[in-house]
Amino acid sequence: MNHETEPASHLLTRPTVLAWAMYDWANSAYTTLMITVLVAYIQRVVFPADHWGTTGAVVWAWGISLSMLVGALLAPVVGAMADARGSKRQWLGATALTGSACGIAIGLVPPTNYIIVVGLFLAANLMLELSLGIYDGFLPELADEQDVASVSAWGYGLGYVGGGIALLLSMLILAFGGQLGLSTVASRLQASLVLMGAWWGLFTLPAIIVLRDTPAGQRPQPIDVAKETTNCELIVKSFRDVGSTIGTLRTNVPLFLFQLSFLFFNDGVQTVISQASTFALQELSFDESGLMAV
């Protein structure tokens, strides 16, 4: 496709670009409500301080860390498998909708079933990590070098709008939930969690319906895969490919330094963001409404 004469302002008129950007709109509801609603639910309802002490904060910190670690280990392999089979759309649908279902279930499972709640929290966060790698993998197939930055920016921008609207709706549920029959703060937080999961799943559908993988003959193969290759063999090949890529860092100093700086900068920022809510709840004694507002 030749997009050289098409102005960047018209990028969203392409169905594939709009559908791709809408996934950022979808998953941003999870990422936004996770650090406002879900953190409060886990630390104030599932593991209340008067019963569990600081257990809720510990569960939150370790849950975020564990799911991100497992996601970091699995994402390159899942990405390689999706590229090799030409199945990014299926992987995006499976991870996103599974994460969405886990998010909804967190709001429906009684908080006394804390083991199930924590398991669903871990699964939802892991599915988000895996889905984002697949989602990013579509970008080079949707835009050429001239448009790729603008397409990415549209997705990023729509993510802020989608996450903001979902947060506003949750604030309204918390403020006026009593008029909807939600008499307790816990029930209002649970309703917001159902909204979180449903939003994620609903607005993922355009990407699943519209996006298509590039045909095998038109895309570079990350690993050499024959048609008769089994899934187990493909997994092994994927791990070897990831290992080979990591091995090249020893001879590619600029790439190594970039990865190292990204680890400290980006993951450091993400750690602060994920734990700032705990600081607000535990040390500054914010209530749920105050945390959402901030």
Strand and helix map with partners:
Blueprint: H1 15-46, H2 49-52, H3 55-85, H4 88-108, H5 114-142, H6 148-176, H7 185-202, H8 205-210, H9 231-247, H10 253-282, H11 288-293
Helix pairs in contact: 1-3, 1-5, 1-6, 1-7, 1-10, 3-4, 3-5, 3-9, 3-10, 4-5, 4-7, 6-7
Would you kindly provide a written description of the structure presented here, covering whatever features stand out?
With 294 residues, the protein is mostly helical. The chain contains eleven helices and no strands. It has a single domain (13-293), classed as MFS general substrate transporter like domains (Growth Hormone, Chain: A, Up-down Bundle), CATH 1.20.1250.20. Helix 1 (15-46) packs across helix 10 (253-282). The chain is globular.
Oligomer status: single chain
The share of residues in extended strands comes to: under 5%
Annotation, overall tally of beta strands:
0
- CATH C-level label: Mainly Alpha
Number of continuous helical runs: 11
**Proportion of residues in helical segments:** over 70%
* Shape assignment: globular
CATH architecture classification: Up-down Bundle
